[in-house]
Amino acid sequence: MLISQIRNDQGGISVVVRNGAEASIIQGVDSSYALVRKAIVGKMSIATCVREHTLGPAVDLEVLAEQNRILLPIHHDDPSHMHLTGTGLTHLGSASTRDAMHSKNAVESSKMTDSMRMFQMGLESGKPAAGKVGVQPEWFYKGNGTAAVAPGHSLNSPEFADDGGEEPEVAGIYVIGDTGVVHRVGFALSNEFSDHVMERVNYLYLAHSKLREASFGPEIFIGELPADIRGTSSIVRNGETIWSKPFLSGEDNMSHTIANLEHHHFKYELFRQPGDVHVHMFGTATLSFADKIACENGDEFVISAPDFGMPLRNPLQMARKTDALISVEVL
Q1: HEC assignment per residue over the chain
Q2: Model confidence pLDDT, tens digit, residues 144-191
Q3: Which of 12, 44, 195, 208 has a 20 to 30 Å separation from 292 between CA atoms?
Q4: How does residue 324 score in pLDDT terms, banded at 50, 70 and 90?
Q5: What is the pLDDT of residues 186-216, one digit of tens each?
Q6: Do the Cβ atoms of 128 and 256 come closer than 8 Å?
Q7: Phi and psi for 128 in degrees, rounded to 5?
Q8: Farthest CA pair distance, the chain
């Protein structure tokens, strides 16, 4: 089952459910967040909650995508109550790119970088026995709901950026219940848009490189995450694909379990505030930056994987560089 949100003919929001090729509007619900809240209050699964609603007319999501009417698959009316976060060095092979970016900053060429050390920790202790806590991963913050970009809309690289590059990832989608219980809604494709040139300067710039917009969707996969996910990440320039590469995800291709990554995010009470929405990205091992691709203004990022429905597409919009200083007024 796949869930998405569209801009309907009246200018409002409709929630769409899809099983196979056929997609239909769910009647009696005005947002996927409202649907999730109803499921939480009713102590039922999303699938059961959907079945309690009448399905309305069928819709063609591909046509709606061409009309730019696909919205984020879930949102919060107050963007400050949505959190975009993620974790890195979680996928087998993910250390090689990061190690190459950071190794030049090591004091000795033979010294293991912090990136490689973190990756090794995950290999050794990232998949604990059920009910046990494993080693904590690298973690980063990307922003709140104001940084969430709908599918089909531009990912904006700010004027102070050194680069704007894609990161094809799977994200967990969560809503916090009224008592602080974390409820996983499902999973979605995401583009954890980052500045890899800035990060390469010094790995301590990681936090700066991650404070960028991100996109996820168009659809939320309802159910347990497949163990072996095989997708494709591409860059289209002027109608031609200039770079394309497969990416792997799912626990078979990871050094951490999903449960371990979830624990180390939600162990903080800050992230268990009732009503909040979380989009937590699980990392990747595939970057065009690793193949020395320099993205340009107008390039389109395309991330796809069969289990997740429609591909996630976002054009790149690069702001003109400026040295303008942000000044602070004294009151």
Answers
A1: CEEEEEECCCCCEEEEEEECCEEEEECCCCCHHHHHHHHHHCCCCHHHHHHCCCEEEEECHHHHHHCCCECCCCCCCCHHHEEEEECCCCECCHHHHHHHHHHHHCCCCCCCCHHHHHHHHHHHHCCCCCCCCCCCCCCEEEEEHHHEECCCCCEEECCCCCCCECCEEEEEEEEECCCCCEEEEEEEEEECCECHHHHHHCHHHHHHHHCCCEEECCCEECCCCCCCEEEEEEEEECCEEEEEEEEEECHHHECCCHHHHHHHHHCCHHHCCCCCEEEEECCCCCCHHHHCCCCCCCCEEEEECHHHCCCEEEEEEECCCCCCCCCCCCC
A2: 999 999 999 999 999 999 999 999 999 999 999 999 999 999 999 999
A3: 208
A4: confident
A5: 999 999 999 999 999 998 999 999 999 999 9
A6: no
A7: -70, 170
A8: 65
Instruction: Please identify which residue in the block is written with the tokens 């009246």.
Output: 10
